[in-house]
Amino acid sequence: MNNPIPKSCFIFLSLLALSLSVTHGRSTRLEPCKRIVLYYHDILFNGTDAANATSVNITSPSAISKFEFGMMVVFDDPMTEDGRLLSPAVARAQGFYVYDKKDGYSAWFAYTLLFNSTDYKGTLNVIGSDPFPQETRDLSVVGGTGDFFMARGIVTFQTDDAQGDFYFRLKMDIKLYECYKI
After folding, report:
1. What pLDDT, on a 0 to 100 scale, did the predictor assign at position 129?
2. Rounded distance, CA 16 to CA 74, Å?
3. Distance CA 152, CA 143 (A)
4. Which are the contacts of 137, defined by CB distance < 8 A and separation ≥ 6?
5. CA-CA distance, 156 to 82, in Å (whole number)?
6. Residue 14 phi, psi dihedral angles, 5° rounding
7. Rounded Cα gap, residues 148 and 178, in angstroms
8. How far apart are CA 18 and CA 106, in angstroms?
C-alpha cells in the first residue's frame, strides 16, 4: 500500500512550517538586534547637597531589618556612555527602586530611560530585581517608544563603582531582542 502524500498537503505543511518561523518583522535571533552600553549614576540626597542629588528616599526603612527593607527611592539619574559622571548625559533614567529583601540587600527597579540625542529618540521601560551581591543582574526591557517602539530585551546591571551609601554607578548593558521599525 503505497499512498504518496498529495502535493497540496506537502505545500500546506511547507507553508505552515515557514509561517511558524516568521515573526512579522521582529527579530527572534539569539543575537541582539540592538545593543547599547550606558552608565547609570545615582547620587542619593544626603540631607545637605540638594544641588547635586539625583535621587531621594521617600520612605524610611522599616525597623524590622538592617538591610533598608521597605525604603523607596525615586530617581532622575544621568546616563553616560563612558562612565564619567561629568560626561554629557545621553539619556536620563527616571523611576524608583524599593529595597525588597528583609535578609539581604536587594532592590526592585521600575524606570524609564529617556533618550533625546542625535543617536536615539524615545524611551525604554525597564523593570526587575537587583540583588546587589550578585556580580551581574538581569532586568527586563518591557517596551519602548520612538526608536525603541515596542522593544523587548534584557538590561544587565554590573556595579561599576560605589562610594558609601550616597553614590553608585552601574554599567548597564542593554540588549534588545525585539526591534521594530516604524
Report:
1. 96
2. 49
3. 6
4. 128, 129, 130, 131, 156, 157, 158
5. 16
6. -65, -45
7. 9
8. 44
Total number of residues shown for the chain: 182
CB 47 within 8 A of CB 53: no
* CATH number of the domain located at residue range(s) 27-178 in this protein: 2.40.480.10
| Cell numbers at 1, concatenated | 500500500
Q: In the chain, what is the greatest distance between 2 CA atoms, to the nearest angstrom?
A: 90
d(CA 74, CA 104): 21
Q: Report yes or no: 53 and 42 within 8 Å, Cβ to Cβ.
A: no
pTM for the whole structure: 0.80
Written as tens digits, the pLDDT of the chain (182 aa) is 555 666 665 555 554 454 444 455 554 547 999 999 999 999 999 888 899 999 999 999 899 998 999 999 999 999 999 988 889 999 999 999 999 999 999 999 999 999 988 899 999 999 999 998 899 999 999 999 999 999 999 999 999 998 887 899 999 999 999 999 87
Distance CA 154, CA 126 (A): 8
Please give the distance of CA 142 from its chain centroid, rounded to a whole number: 8
